[in-house]
Amino acid sequence: MTVDRQELRGVLDGRWAQVRDEIRAQMDELAFNADPDLSTEEYRALTTENLRRLAATGRPHQGFDPAYGGRGDVGGVVTAFAMLGYGDLSLLVKAGVQWGLFGGAVQVLGTSRHHDAYLKQIMDGELLGCFAMTETGHGSDVQNLRTTATYDPATREFEIHTPEPGARKDYIGNAARDGRMAVVFAQLVTQGRSHGVHALLVPIRDESGAPVPGVTIGDCGRKAGLNGVDNGRLTFDHVRVPREALLNRFGDITEDGAYTSSIANETRRFFTMLGTLVRGRISVAGGAGTATQKALALAIRYGAVRRQFADPATGEEVVVLDYLVHQRKLLPALATTYALHFAQSDLVSDMHDLQAPGVEGDEWRQRDLETRAAGIKALATWHATATIQTCREACGGAGYLAENLLPQLKADTDVFTTFEGDNTVLMQLVAKTILSDYGRRVARLDLAGKARFAADMVADTVVERTGLRAVLRRGDVRDRAYQRWLLVEREQHLLANAAQRMRKALAPGADQFGIFNGAQDHLLVAARAHVDRIVFDSFAAAVDRVTDPGVRGLLADVLRLHALSVIESDRAFFVEHAYLTPARAKAVTQAVNGLCGRLRPHARTLVDGFGIPEPWLACPLLDGEHETEAALLAVAPVG
Questions:
Q1: Staple 235 to which of 167, 216, 217, 220, CB 3.0 to 4.6 Å?
Q2: DSSP for 107-167?
Q3: Are strands 215-219 and 129-132 parallel, antiparallel or unpaired?
Q4: Per-residue pLDDT at 628
Q5: How far is CA 212 from the centre of its chain?
Q6: How many CA atoms lie within 13 A of 451 on its CB side?
Q7: CB atoms within 10 A of CB 358
């Protein structure tokens, strides 16, 4: 199989290939792997300096409204943001806080009065800010935050207050050192009534850098990773801001204190506001993906030159990547990284199309986007944590040295599983959405349809108990259509059974919390199966779009390996529910082994396809590549 590496890179670069190339061209100025011996203050100062260099390139303007000097290219800026994951993840996170969270909230939750006053300064990096949502006592439960914003019609001001220690804003990026203003999420109270969580712009530092009166700023201190980011804590003691500080796209206050909103239902209004902030969640998934790609590039390239133990037939030491167990460590993870890359690309593209200037809101598409963003963020960050650890182990002691980059990747990405949404909570959100959709589909059936539905449920139970299913539906485990059938059947089976369990909660007097709590494990695996199928479909669609036969053939094998790895990891389900016989389950493992061997000669090509600039990979771990190349040149025939 002949593969054109440039063609492969073009497929991976996708819709925003030009953006990726521009970022690669700028790497020399911005790229570095931070010295692990820097003090916290030195690292924070360096990260802020690089943030300002990034601002000077104009790249952060890309995602903002053209009316304020931006380009309205939301997908392009999210793509560029993810590319920073090949380098310093502290810079990635600080940039995400500044332009994705702080700037993004001002843009999507504010109106022209906020855009006119602040957007240009935010884009240029002149006004550094924070996104103050999370509280010490309430992280994922945003709807029940305790910070209050109480309107006083006599002064036409809001009073921002932290009523108890648990309401302190915590883990807030940019707060400890650099932020001058914060988007503060608080319960909006006017005329003695709360209208739920809203966001307000609150100054936290004056021009000299000192906290403004009433604001107490703390420092979260040194963390396990991302120490170039100045995470801090904010407490407000009856801090007053003008009425115009309210980011009022979805809710506003008149001068006399009357509340108005285009969305009457408070819960719907809350989730609509949060939905506009989906870009942050998608960006985290992208950053996790590029960090994973970097780890795999390091581990696979090292594995291709590192030798260990002699082959008895030749007496020569064997390259470790030629061992099946080493291939098993890295190549299925590489295949899933490819799958998640294409799923992420689809997500970014859909977000861009949905948020483009002038596009009318589509509630169904927005909800679908939010659900996929939640699921893919969870899978991508869990995958990053597991894969980077595997890459570290695959490089042995060398992988444990800070100079070889993997320990920092491991430390910096560890928190990705719990920020921008705890993964378990996000998967519960996915489960809730797909259950609601399932319930609506069943409710829309006519009498005959409901009868068929009930009959199908009975038939499904029969074929499962008798083992007939695995006999009636046999196929080649390497065949894409058969793989998809297995993934879809798992998704539908788990969803239908979860719905059956949750129906009990609808009965009068039912213990709704107890029923939900008792089914949480089931709901999470149903959500996981749903997202696995979405990821598979994205990868399959990407393969079908490829025109170069060599690249298409290679990616088809990578897709097979990804799908079989997912199926193999849940063999117990497929056997227990009679989708596979024990013998067929063994065939899955044999097929994974075979594909690992088939893809081994292309491992370097596959990681080169990510297009990671060499300066971002430079470390002693890869010095052995140059020694191997020198040795080959020394014995190569001349002329």
A1: 216
A2: HHH--HHHIIIIIHHHHHTSS-EEEE--BSS-SS-GGG---EEEEETTTTEEEEE--SGGG
A3: unpaired
A4: 54
A5: 35
A6: 3
A7: 5
Q: Quick one: pLDDT at residue 354? A: 86
Question: What is the model's pTM?
Answer: 0.91
**Structure token digits, residue 415:** 């928190």
* C-beta of residue 416 within 8 angstroms of C-beta of residue 387: no
Name which of 199, 285, 299 is nearest 250 in CA terms. Answer: 199
What is the rounded (10 degree) CA torsion for 170, 171, 173, 178?
60
Domains of the chain, CATH where assigned: 5-127 (1.10.540.10), 130-270 (2.40.110.10), 279-608 (1.20.140.10)
Which pLDDT value is given to residue 57? 87
Rounded to an integer, what distance in angstroms lies between the CA atom of residue 80 and that of residue 452?
A: 50
Residue of 134, 140, 96 lying closest to 427 (CA atoms)? 140
Geometric angle at alpha carbon 421, from 419 and 423, rounded to 5°:
95
Helix (H, G, I), strand (E, B) or coil at 223: coil
Using 50 as the pLDDT threshold, list the residues of the chain that sit under it.
Answer: 450-451, 453, 455, 458, 462, 471, 629-639
What's the pLDDT at 630?
A: 47
- How far apart are the two ends of the chain, measured CA to CA in Å? 28
Strands 181-190 and 148-152, sheet pairing: parallel
Determine the distance from the C-alpha atom of residue 634 to the mean position of all C-alpha atoms in its chain, rounded to a whole number. Answer: 46
259: DSSP letter: E
Q: pLDDT digits over 471-501, tens only?
A: 455 788 999 999 999 999 999 999 998 888 8
Given phi > 0 = left and psi -120 to 50 = alpha, else beta, which region is 447?
A: alpha
Question: What is the DSSP secondary structure assignment for residue 248, as one 8-state letter?
Answer: -
Nearest to 90 by CA among 411, 319, 349, 544: 411
